[in-house]
Amino acid sequence: MKDFNEKNAVITGAASGMGLAMAQTFADSGMKVVLADIEEEALASAVSQLSAQGHSVLGVRTDVSKLSDVEALAAATIKEFNAVHVLCNNAGVGVGAPVGSTSLADWKWTLDIDLWGPIYGVEIFLPLIEEQGEGHINSTASMAGLYAGASLGAYNVAKHGVVALMASLERDLRWRDSKVRASVLCPGPINTRITESERNRDPDDAAKHTDSEQGQKFWDFLTRTLANGMDPAEVGPMVLDAVVNEKFWVLTHPEMGEIALSQAQAMLTDQRLTR
């Protein structure tokens, strides 16, 4: 897909961070954009920011963990712009906790948003995109979708699932000669607010979070790491490039792929998890 004039893109988690960067990039390329996010005030600010630049923008408050909200997002998009050509399943959250010390509420919250969100997005939007004859679906996973490190059990499981979802989708699309393509974004350290995810969590559900010394130490480390991470603005053009050039993998830090490679080598050499 190379012509973006009069085309429409839907981005979830679009009020800030990588989602807003994608929205900005697609809008600058000539597309009309639909910004979806659960954080209403930030969403309104993002819509105002893009509208002030002369872009065609629609904001829709969306909780991607709810199928009804994703269906409503699709309906609002069609009502406003009549079609959809690109979907970016970007909304995501994280919890720092080791397996065995993660509450069931934390598991459910993470998987509902990080995995079921993209599943709902694909199932609801794919038929609409295929109606246009061409298009693209991108979902945000993580390097944690390629390598499962410690203290991120629920997040690792969700992001591995997203990688599998998008790989399955891409192969299914090619098998039936569809003109729609799929890709997966696997970011390394990006300066976003994902370690503040619980700001948008229901307080009663957040109260079920289980703290652990290991999890908190890792979360503090991750917060410091992300503060020095890549500017989210750099990510939008990478996703656009994947759409234009039909790339499946979008790696913000290709050098981190060596971690996944070493894991594969260990599997083949002596069947250990890592070497």
Structure description:
By secondary structure, this protein is of the alpha/beta class. The protein has one domain: NAD(P)-binding Rossmann-like Domain (Rossmann fold, 3-Layer(aba) Sandwich), CATH 3.40.50.720. 48% of the residues lie in helices and 13% in strands. It has 10 helices and 7 strands. The chain has helices at residues 17-28, 40-51, 67-81, 104-114, 116-130, 153-175, 203-206, 213-227, 235-245, 257-269; strands at 8-12, 32-37, 57-61, 86-89, 135-140, 180-186, 249-251. The chain has a 7-stranded parallel β-sheet with strand order 3-2-1-4-5-6-7, with helices on both faces. Helix 6 links the parallel strand 5 (135-140) and strand 6. Helix 1 packs across helix 9 (235-245), helix 3 (67-81) runs parallel beside helix 5 and helix 4 (104-114) packs parallel to helix 6 (153-175). The protein is globular and about 50 Å long. The N and C termini lie far apart (41 Å). 42% of the residues are buried. The mean pLDDT is 95.
Quick description:
The chain is α/β, with parallel strands linked by helices. The chain has a single domain (8-269), classed as NAD(P)-binding Rossmann-like Domain (Rossmann fold), CATH 3.40.50.720. It contains ten helices and seven strands.
